[in-house]
Amino acid sequence: MNFRDSVLQVIETENVPSGYKRLGDKVILRSKFDLTEKLGRAVLEVLPWSTSVFQHLTTTGEVRRPKLKFLAGDRDTLTVHIENGVKYALDIANITFSGGNSQLRKRLITTVHAGEQIVDMFAAVGNLTLQAIKYNNIEAILVERNEYTYQFLLKTLKLNNLSDVVTKNQDSRNLKTLNWADRVFMGYHAVARDHLASALRISKAKSILHLHPLAKNKEYQKTLDIYTSHLEKLGAQIEKVEIQKVKSFAPGVDHIEITYSIQK
Known about the structure:
By secondary structure, the chain is an alpha/beta fold. Helix content is 27%, strand content 35%. α1 packs across α2.
């Protein structure tokens, strides 16, 4: 029986979402309707592992802070989420963690190669690169400028016994590391020219850059051309480029990954 039908067996109500997002022992529901405490209590009954139910209202600001409405259970928003054997320390009311990127995270485990050195310029709690780090013999620098999120990054690394990962609580555009990285990851959707300039300074003479912009789903080439132009004007020679869809982000808009193999 699916989630919606299970809830409807507990209560008869309209506007039951077809599914839910799980983060640790927290349940997050999405709906254009104003969901009720009664629905939240029914969800707790249907999902016995859950301790809290929230409705996601929106996400705001450069740091992608979620705005949640509490529905039922424990009001505490702290949890530990486990995905593919990796633990993430989260405050779901302040840190966005996208379950829709799970296949991307899993794919990166085999994309990154043993012996590589990587930099994650927008690390959050290791949202993009932590699984690749956990399951490969690589050196990593994780950069997260938001101090609150950075504290959860440190907790996450401790939970996973990753004591040798270098972390930086700063704007990645000010990173002093030079000519070090085999790969640079930029998981922020709105990467600007100065972020790209920093990525080139950080990377070795031959390296790979992973960008994650948003693009209209019929205009991938337009988005690609913008970043390609920036990189070429910054002096990078592009040897290879790959582009693929990660997931749908909004109606008509996709989260895509652009992977550049470059020489400088």
